[in-house]
Amino acid sequence: MNPKVTFPVPEPTEAEIQHVAYLLWLEGGEQPDRDLEYWFAAKELLRHRHAPASGHKKGKVSPIPPSVPVTPAKR
Fold this sequence. Notes:
Elements: H1 14-27, H2 35-50
Helix pairs in contact: 1-2
């Protein structure tokens, strides 16, 4: 039997969370007073992106989730 070795998942940095929260805010229509909601959603998205996945190269994690647009929404 080979015991499964697990490594601690690194927490996303504050800058990564801030960036993704901003993108989520833009995607959500720039609604006021929802900053904590976007912050926690961004942190959760990034935690899942930082989690090791089989078949992915270690250390090659994008700070931007694929479902979040990179360009600001047009008004």
